Structures are given as structure tokens and as C-alpha cells.
Amino acid sequence: MEINPKYRGRISAAWWSKTLLAIAAVLSVLILPFGFDLWSALVVAGVLTVTFFEFKVHHYFLTGDPRAPDLGFRNQSCFAAGILLYGLYHAFHPPPVPQEYAELLDGPTIDLLQNVIKNGYITVGIVGGLSQFGLAWYYRNAKPA
Predict the structure, then answer these.
(1) Per-residue confidence of the chain (145 residues) as pLDDT tens digits?
(2) In this structure, is residue 1 part of a structural domain?
(3) Is residue 2 domain-resident?
(4) 80 part of a folded domain
(5) Which of the 8 DSSP states describes residue 93?
(6) Which of 5, 144, 135, 10 has its CA nearest to residue 74?
């Protein structure tokens, strides 16, 4: 069976994606017990799900399965949406400065720290979401005409 020539680059991209996601999944599971809450559990569940499907995407591209572009697009689009929602939610509902640090800082420094945290979450949401959505379209563009 001849593999779509566009799949060659996608095989490499999916390998890197699944590898980095697997590392993130393992780390998220390992640190979950140290800060268990609903948000952490949702993030871990999401990362594990995306990782599972990214392994399938890589396998599909590797074997020339025509389902690869669509599954890759859906998986990465959902991941992009999740990152965007995570970043924007935390930007508008940032975690409070821990009390032990707040006692050492003055009001303007606390405000500055909260703005840095807010901008960091906005950056993660937008840049992370857009980059994953770019990967989704890269996968999708391998779809046969």
C-alpha cells in the first residue's frame, strides 16, 4: 500500500506531539496528589485523553490510514480549545497570592504580581491554543482531495 506523501511530515509531527504529551501526562499524574482539586483532575483527564488519541493519530499516519487527518484535526482542535479556555479562565480568575508571600509584599507589588500572573495565563491560552490549532490544520491538510 502506498502512503500519502503528505503523511511523511505528519508522522514526525505526531511523533513529537505524542512524546511531549506523554511526558506532560506522566508529570501531571505524578503531581496530581500534591494539589488535588477539581481543576487539576480535569486537566489530568484532558491531557491523558489527548495523549491517547495522539498515539492513535501517529499510528494512523504511520500506517497510511486515511482516518489520520480527521482524527488529528479533532484531537488537536479540542486540545487547543482546552488550552484557550484554561488560560482565559485563569486570567480572569487568577489564583490568589499565597498568604505567606502576601505578608512580605506591599500592595503595589502584589498588584504587579497578579498582573504578571494574569498576563501569563492569557499568553499561555492564546499562544498555546493557536499553536495547537495550527498543528490541527497541519494534520487536516494531509487529507486526500
Answers:
(1) 578 889 999 999 999 999 999 999 999 999 999 988 888 899 999 999 999 999 999 999 999 999 999 999 999 999 999 999 999 999 998 888 888 888 888 889 989 989 999 999 999 999 999 999 999 999 999 987 7
(2) no
(3) no
(4) yes
(5) S
(6) 135
Distance (Å, rounded) from C-alpha 128 to C-alpha 123? 8
Cell numbers that stand for 127 in this block: 499562544
Contact 116, 85 (CB under 8 A): no
Q: Dihedral of CA 134/26/28/57: which sign?
A: positive
For residue 104, the Cα-to-chain-centroid distance in whole angstroms is 34
Residue type present at position 119: N
Say how many C-beta atoms besides its own lie within 10 A of residue 33's C-beta: 8
CA-CA distances (angstroms) from residue 16 to 10, 72, 104, 142?
10, 13, 43, 17
CA nearest 74: which of 12, 17, 19, 133?
133
The cell numbers describing 14, all together, are 505526531
Q: How many domains does the chain have?
A: 1
Helices (H), the chain: 7-31, 38-63, 68-92, 99-102, 107-123, 129-140
